Amino acid sequence: MCPLFSPPLFMQRYQFVVDFVQKYEPKKVLDLGCAECRLLEKLKYHGNGVELLVGVDKDSSAMRTRMYSFAPLSSDYLQPRTGPLAIELYEGSVTQPDPSTCGFDLVTCIELIEHLHLEEVEMFSEVLFGFMAPSAVIVSTPNADYNPLLPGLVGFRHPDHKFEWSREQFQLWALRQCEVFGYTVNFTGVGALAEPHTDVGFCSQIAVFNQDPSPQDSAVQYRSREEPTVYRLLYSVVYPSLSDNNILQKTLVNEVLCRAELVKQSWLSGKWVAKTAPEPYMTGSSVCVSLLDVWSCPRVRSLCGTLRRFTEALVGESRVVLTPGREAVIIPVDDEEEEEEEEDEDGQGTETRWTASVTTEDWDVEIPHNLDSNLHGAKHG
Hints:
Blueprint: H1 9-24, E1 28-32, H2 38-46, E2 52-57, H3 60-64, H4 74-78, E3 86-91, E4 106-110, H5 118-132, E5 136-142, H6 167-181, E6 183-190, E7 204-211, E8 232-238, H7 245-268, E9 281-283, E10 286-290, H8 291-295, H9 298-304, H10 307-314, E11 328-332, H11 335-345, H12 375-378
Parallel strand pairs: 1-2, 1-4, 2-3, 4-5
Antiparallel strand pairs: 3-8, 5-7, 6-7, 9-10, 10-11
Helix pairs in contact: 1-2, 7-9
């Protein structure tokens, strides 16, 4: 079936969700029947503004094959995310209500419902729309009207499918949920063929539900998210982000030291170009780099916002040594650099070679979740 579609149909379904998330920017997204977490992986990298990604599947072995791929990489610490992100994976049945699934902006059910027995569909519908009651729901399922066009297909598309609905059957089910639980729905899909087959619709039909602003006479009752009581947590990770003030402070200091080191090396090698910032100068065996020069770095400015917050964040920071007047940062010159500088002055030097030192951070320390304090307060935390 895959050669019929480019990109493959499963990728088109995932991209549909990604496009929806990028357009409407939900903060909390739950994927039911997440299997090997492929959709969650895409949303991790392409979900604008998503702060919580949760996957649920009754087959824990499928999730276990991929869950450790969500572990933060070195790059996640070197370049923390701007906003917070946490990912959680649970073993559980979509026909059982669990408080960990409440309070979501978006719930996705991609090729899930057809794996349920028909008698389970009603329980699933009650749990999804009545208990979870998310702001939006995306449900995709095979379109049985399309099946005659699929070469060599006999019966259902997958041996585990319990049923496959026609467009009429799917729409009747969806409209019934809107009536009972206070939603509106739009129908679309992915995997359409050109003429003369447009009358059969999409290969995968999709219903996009949106909760009514003030549902009346519906079975919906808002519930906030709580700890699981039925589901079992398999994996949980919180990514480093600049919303954590400790990480913001460490990131700022790293950027300051890196920028100052580059300016120092440029000045020692005679490549420093005069600009609005004062020229670096020697004091003992160290080079003093103007804070204005460091502040000119776009990355530093983006982390602080204002020059005042920038200077306040550095005062009292143990890794940053400032001059008495707090107008420059003091960067030591190591022995090798001093020798090379002396050789250059004698006319015997060769091209200066240097390697910026890398500061190793202890990222395992407990970090308080105080997102409202400013940079100046964070460095004292």
